[in-house]
Amino acid sequence: MAAQRPKFADLRIITRDRLVDILESVPEMKDLVLDPQLMKPLDHFTGASFLKEHGVNKIFKLEGDRLDAVCDKRIYLLRPELLPTKFVADHVNNDKKSGKRRSYKIVYVPKKLHICEMILEQEGVYGDVSLDEFQLEFIPLDEDILTLELPSFLKDYVLEGDQTPLSFVARALATLQQLYGAIPVVYGLGNCAKMVGELVRNILDEEGEYKPIDGPDIGSLVLIDRGVDFVTPMCSQVTYAGVVDDTFGIKSGVVEFGPEVTGKDKTTKMLLNDQDKVFCDIRDRHFSNVFGYLSQKTKEVQSGYDKRQHLSTVSDMRQYVSDELRGLRQQHTGLTIHIGACEFVLKTKTKENFERRLRAEHDLLELIEDKEDVDYIEDCIIKRANPYKTLQLLCLFSLTRGGVEPKLCQTLRHRFLQSFGHEYMLTFSALKQLGLFTELEPQRKGMFKILNKRLNLIPKDADKIDLKNPKQMAYVFSGAYTPISCKLVEQVLLSGMPTFEEMSRLLGVASFSSRMTPSARSHTSMNDAGSKCTLVMFLGGCTFSEISAIRLLSNRLGYRIIVAATAILNGTRLLESISTPKES
């Protein structure tokens, strides 16, 4: 039985309907003020014309400055955080001082928190506003990618001990099951995964199992904490999607290319998903094979244009215009942009001596003790290379060795703070708390080596891995390393819970399993026909490299695997998210 494909259009419809209810709860014309964090996510569900149809006069970005809006009614859409709430309170107080009377509705996404109400009370505006909630849950970025767009998940949950994001995730997973049926098999690895798994089970116990007419579309759910694999996001990405993300930054599936790529004075925003046929063909390719492919594709498009020279009748010309020309133009535009992006990446990587960085990363992954690699890291610090990319190297050094020898650890930290500024002291505190950059710990020493041996993370013949037509997931890091997270997914799909139980003991984290149907209990793995659609949920974010590796795994095993995450991240965004000081 072939795995069914969940129709993620349903998610868009539900979210759009929820937004309509919010907008229509304030009759007549109103202004809409959006938290900058929500602008790109909302673009997946709405547009300016849609908002105008439902009474929105103008759309503003939420900032601390005075807001010059004309409508007597205003809706604020924001994350439940202190700083945005303070901005709203300032707007209301400014209006009060100037004698303007308006009605204000603050809509928190996805949930209002008591701390935000306290801020409104302290600022003296609680009685001037009405409060509501908007459940913005999974956003389909592609046919097989879902994101909750919660980039601060790690900081909120791990560093600040706030468990609210866990309820956001659990509620979103429950909504997914309302649409596609209760997921009968759930496995989790990590303390966060265990808590989310239990929360989802409690929701299902309260609301009852969801039973769609045609049976479940998703046969199994795998929950994985980012904390069980911090190594992967610290590695430089070399698939096309990963390289574009590392170089330009992809936010909510959208990348902004500047004049250095477009060759024009203006920037271009592109939505990168399966609708972009060129991107769809190259997103998972190793970057070394992208240029050649684009060149070949360009010749094919030119041949398509040349066909019109040989059309002899009006009927042939009409058919050519209606069937081929539009597609050729779209491909031509896409090819131009992606070739420009490749050229810019190559110039940047050459300037940064990217090959030297990769060699250092591969040595660290292979546990080669080379003083030249430590010298290279120190050189990056002295030359003040990108601070977060330099921190990635420090973290990779520490993670693969179970920590850094105390004297060297102190030296590297001291030199980094001298070079980049002592404001990074809080960052190092966060890194230590997460176990990303620490002094050598006896209980962690050799852990990566044990993981490598158990999961076969480092291929013995990296040079023999085919990067053009890959068969092994290690291709996403040039054959040098297979992401731990992806190996764990592979193992649990093939062997079931024993894999996670073993990893739980090895890593010292919790594990979780739940089977909701008696017939499922007899299976030790998830490779039966009814379970061939699997949802893999990364709690704390996942990278484009992992997505590419899982797509390869999906094809190899004959599964349909959907990747879901609290956010799509890379090393820089992960480190930035935990470096941001808490608003007060």
Structure description:
The structure is a single chain. The chain has 584 residues and is of the alpha/beta class. It has 23 helices and 15 strands. It is globular. A 7-stranded mixed sheet has the order 6-7-15-14-9-8-13, sandwiched between helices. The chain has a 5-stranded parallel sheet with strand order 2-1-3-4-5. The protein is 49% helix and 13% strand.
Keywords:
584 residues, alpha/beta, 7-stranded mixed β-sheet, 5-stranded parallel β-sheet, 15 strands
Mean pLDDT, nearest integer?
Answer: 89
Give the end-to-end Cα distance, rounded to a whole number of Å: 55 Å
Radius of gyration (CA) equals 25 Å
Unreliable spans: 518-525
Strand order of the largest sheet: 6-7-15-14-9-8-13
Strand content: 5-15%
- DSSP summary, beta strand count: 15
What form results from the Cα inertia axes? globular
Kindly name the structural category: alpha/beta
Biggest sheet, open or closed, and with what strands and sense? 7 strands, mixed
How would you summarize the topology of this molecule?
Layout: H1 9-24, E1 30-34, H2 36-43, H3 48-53, E2 56-61, E3 73-78, H4 82-97, E4 103-108, H5 114-122, E5 129-133, E6 139-142, E7 145-147, H6 153-159, H7 164-180, E8 185-189, H8 191-207, E9 220-225, H9 240-248, E10 250-251, E11 254-257, H10 259-262, E12 268-271, H11 277-282, H12 290-306, H13 314-351, H14 354-365, H15 371-382, H16 387-401, H17 406-420, H18 425-434, H19 447-455, H20 484-495, H21 497-507, E13 511-515, E14 533-539, H22 544-557, E15 560-565, H23 571-579
Parallel strand pairs: 1-2, 1-3, 3-4, 4-5, 7-15, 8-9, 9-14, 14-15
Antiparallel strand pairs: 6-7, 8-13, 10-11, 11-12
Helix pairs in contact: 4-5, 7-8, 12-13, 14-15, 14-16, 16-23, 20-21, 20-22
